[in-house]
Write a structure and sequence with these properties.
The structure holds three protein chains of three kinds.
Chain A lengths: L23 H15 L5 E4 L15 E3 L6 H11 L4 E7 H7 L1 H9 L5 E6 L2 E2 L5 E2 L18 H4 L5 H6 L4 E8 L3 H19 L4 E7 L3 H4 L3 H15 L3 E5 L2
Helix pairs in contact in A: 1-7, 3-4
Chain B lengths: L1 E9 L4 H14 L3 E6 L9 E9 L13 E4 L2 H7 L8 E5 L13 E5 L1 H8 L5 H13 L4 H11 L2 H15 L2
Parallel strand pairs in B: 1-4, 4-5, 5-6
Antiparallel strand pairs in B: 1-3, 2-3
Chain C lengths: L4 E4 H11 L4 E4 L6 H13 L3 E4 L3 H13 L4 E5 L1 H16 L4 E7 L15 H5 L10 E3 L4 H18 L2 E7 H5 L1 E4 L1 H4 L23 E2 L8 H19 L3 E4 L6 E4 L2 H16 L4 E6 L1 E3 L3 H8 L4 E6 L5 H9 L5 E5 L8 H10 L1
Helix pairs in contact in C: 1-2, 1-6, 3-4, 10-13, 11-12
């Protein structure tokens, strides 16, 4: 009988620490599938963030480094400039990329570094226990916005992908989600394109993945998947934001 | 021998170059030498200065508090460094841009209308070379030849001849 | 006489890095080290190596982190406020055991302070600087020539111990021009260290992980014990200092960097007056030359420590002396540079 589904070669056979219904595991796997399909496992170097995905290197079976909180794009710049023929990607959450690491992501994008960025936006800080993220939507309750995010005191959710799309150094940005089978497939297609751009030396590519955090959204996994559709995508519409290739 | 020179003036008067040429010439004579600029925000808008120490023995500090010679190209520099110059020291003043009102009797003051003389040579920018020439003739710390040899290292070929003429003009005052 | 060229300390550091095979430089402009960034911009390009003017000091140190883990000799430079920003990155470099060379051309603080020379970052440089139990190797040049040679050495020590090395200079050293000969005449040989820990893609080997996060029970303590063992080895092998007249001195000056030049003049003046005075100049500030100070202190009437700070190295001198003789201090702060006359008066008064 033909085997139609198995663990990607680039993925270690270990149990992940992620909560039930968390999107990180799906995104990790999609990246591994793409790396396998391009046969680039042996030339890939990943930069893991600080946040829930800090332990990504325990799940990926290729060279991976940690980086200080938010600094992954700067670390990626250093690696890529020294090893321009290797495939370099950062994996960053919303706090890492859109709060503490805002300067690094903007300037790395603006330099047009030929790297791939996978940006997982789940609108909350998971690792530290459910505080407000820069991407927390208005009215969303978190540990630090107990009555819901209020623009007067907490500011507005940051559409960092749209901001980055204005930079001439950026070739491709797409926003996807991993809350149903169709969206998972679209996410894989986007990740594949973001890696292909790098392989073809086209420049900076970023995929923003809307992902679920049932634990700190205080929902069941099923409710969380629905919430992405009904609430998150209203403020963060899915689709290609920039495609210059 | 230990000569501590402060060269001071407006930005754009070639103050840094003046100091650097002195330092290069001293190096060519195998003397110990240090050159240090005033740097950063103070360079812009106001008075800039550089410090050159020339000595027969190893130089400890390149920072000069009280110079043995002050070469001043404008009024603010004169006002700042005349009081600091060591007794029996030398102050060379660009009288085109600074008026000397001697308050100290223990200094030798050499007046050179350097900017006007430079204008006569066709370019006020060589006022620094005229005053450098005047310094060399007065102090004899370094030979004119060493300074002439140092010129091509900081002055572009296009302006080399004019700078040489200005240097000799100052020297032969 | 060897052929000499006129160079400022900042440029000499840059050329030291170039000749040591520095392949990557990232930095953000700040006075008084700007000549170094400008020098690297030009020379790295000429040599076909990587220069990046980063968006911040934080980015610069993290780019260095990336270049270093990819196997390159990498450097960043800044001055005091910028070095404070780099501390997070330095702590990560140590935690991940990555080599790097970091230049601090110190200026007056605290806060924005001023741009005048200072030695007030001694504590920050020698005691760790960022979070965690660690040291960086700290080398303090006192001349333009030494700025070149110690930078060259810094790259070797960084690779040898897989640890960041800091060159600690001040505004005078960075800005001052002096004739130098070694730079042109004796191109030192670059050592090659086998780096079997870098990330360059896992072809033909198992994937590698670079990290300082160790969550397993006891893992982080074990990691720290290993780091401390390394620091102990550095303390045993890498102490560097210059000593003058210790044989018969009954009083010595202890100072480093720019200040030690001025102290040397004081020593030679006092010697010519028949005073039995000597000098110790720590070249490595960490590891600190404890032994020689401890040994010498036993037969001294006193030690005068001179710094451009409120008295930071003073503490290490006192620890080394262990009360064997009185330790005095003279310091200038906020950009003040002590003069020969000031120090002379201090010594005479004692």
């Amino acid at each position: 009988m033909e085997k139609t589904f198995s663990r990607p070669k680039s993925m270690r056979n270990v149990v992940m620490h992620y909560c039930a219904g968390c999107g990180h595991g799906i995104v990790h796997r999609l990246i591994c599938e793409v790396i396998d399909e391009f046969k680039i496992r042996e030339k890939t170097i990943a930069i893991a963030p600080v946040g829930c995905a800090v332990l990504a290197y325990d799940y990926w079976d290729f060279d991976t480094t940690e980086s200080a909180h938010g600094r992954a794009p700067a670390v990626a710049t250093g690696i890529k400039r020294i090893l321009p023929d290797r495939i370099i990607f950062t994996y960053q959450g919303d706090g890492d990329l859109a709060a503490i690491g805002t300067a690094e992501i903007i300037h790395t994008a603006n330099r047009g570094e030929n790297i791939t960025v996978i940006f997982v936006n789940n609108a909350v800080y998971g690792m530290t226990g459910g505080q407000m993220a820069p991407t927390t939507i208005l009215g969303q309750k978190t540990e630090t916005t107990p009555w819901g995010r209020e623009p007067k005191s907490d500011g507005y959710p940051l559409k960092i992908s749209e901001m980055l799309s204005l930079l001439p150094g950026v070739v491709y940005i797409e926003r996807t989600a991993v809350n149903n089978a169709k969206n998972v497939l679209l996410t894989k297609r986007a990740i594949k394109k973001a890696f292909l751009n790098q392989i073809e030396n086209k420049g900076f590519s970023l995929v923003e993945v809307l992902s679920s955090c049932p634990t700190y959204w205080h929902m069941s996994p099923v409710e969380a998947m629905k919430w992405i559709d009904t609430e998150m995508t209203k403020y963060y519409p899915l689709g290609v934001i920039k495609n210059n290739c | 021998m230990k000569e501590e020179v402060i060269c001071a003036g407006f930005g754009g008067q070639g103050i840094m170059v003046l100091g650097k040429i002195l330092a290069l010439a001293a190096m060519k004579e195998d003397k110990f030498v240090t050159w240090m600029p005033s740097y950063g925000a103070e360079v812009r808008g106001g008075t800039a200065h550089s410090m050159v120490v020339i000595s027969d023995r190893e130089i400890t500090s390149p920072v000069i508090t009280n110079p043995t010679t002050a070469i001043v190209m404008n009024q603010p520099s004169l006002d700042k460094f005349l009081p600091k110059t060591k007794a029996q020291g030398l102050v060379i003043v660009n009288t085109s841009l600074a008026k000397v009102n001697p308050t100290r009797k223990d200094l030798e003051i050499l007046k050179v209308p350097a900017t006007e003389m430079a204008a006569k040579l066709g370019n006020i920018k060589v006022a620094n070379m005229i005053i450098l020439g005047a310094y060399l003739a007065k102090r004899k710390t370094l030979s004119l030849e060493s300074v002439l040899n140092a010129l091509p290292e900081t002055i572009s070929a296009e302006f080399l001849e004019l700078n040489e003429i200005a240097l000799r003009t100052g020297f032969n005052l | 006489m060897k052929e000499r060229i006129l160079l400022c300390g900042n440029e000499a550091i840059g050329e030291g890095a170039i000749q040591a095979g520095c392949q990557f430089y990232a930095g953000y402009p700040i006075t008084p080290q700007n000549e170094l960034t400008a020098y690297m911009a030009r020379r790295m390009n000429e040599e076909g190596r990587v220069f990046i003017q980063s968006e911040s000091e934080i980015s610069a140190i993290n780019m260095v982190f990336g270049a270093s883990l990819a196997g390159a000799r990498a450097m960043t430079s800044s001055s005091s406020p910028g070095i404070s920003l780099k501390q997070e990155g330095i702590s990560y470099l140590v935690g991940c055991e990555l080599p790097a060379v970091i230049i601090n051309i110190m200026r007056g603080g605290p806060g924005l302070g001023n741009i005048a020379p200072s030695q007030a970052d001694y504590f920050q440089a020698t005691k760790g600087g960022g979070h965690g139990d660690y040291h960086t190797i700290v080398l303090a040049p006192s001349s333009v020539e030494e700025a070149f040679s110690l930078t060259f050495l810094a790259f070797d020590l960084a690779d040898l111990y897989r640890n960041p090395v800091i060159i600690l200079g001040d505004g005078v050293l960075g800005q001052m021009m002096e004739p130098v000969s070694q730079i042109q005449n004796s191109r030192p040989k670059v050592k090659n260290y086998s780096k079997d820990w870098i990330l360059n893609g896992c072809r033909g080997r198992n994937p590698r992980i670079i990290r300082s996060l160790l969550l397993g029970e006891g893992e982080l303590e074990k990691h720290n014990q290993r780091l401390q063992k390394k620091f102990k080895e550095i303390k045993e092998k890498e102490v560097r200092f210059e000593a003058l007249y210790l044989e018969d001195a009954d009083f010595i000056l202890v100072s480093y960097g720019t200040v030690s030049r001025i102290c040397k003049a004081v020593v030679s003046n006092l010697r010519s007056l028949g005073k039995k005075i000597g000098l110790i100049r720590p070249v490595s500030l960490w590891p600190f030359p404890e032994e020689i100070i401890k040994k010498t202190a036993k037969r001294l009437k006193g030690i005068l420590v001179v710094e451009m700070s409120a008295g930071q190295m003073l503490e290490d001198v006192k620890i080394s002396v262990e009360g064997a003789c009185p330790v005095y201090f003279y310091g200038r702060m906020g950009g003040g540079v002590p003069t020969e006359e000031e120090i002379f008066k201090q010594v005479i008064a004692l």
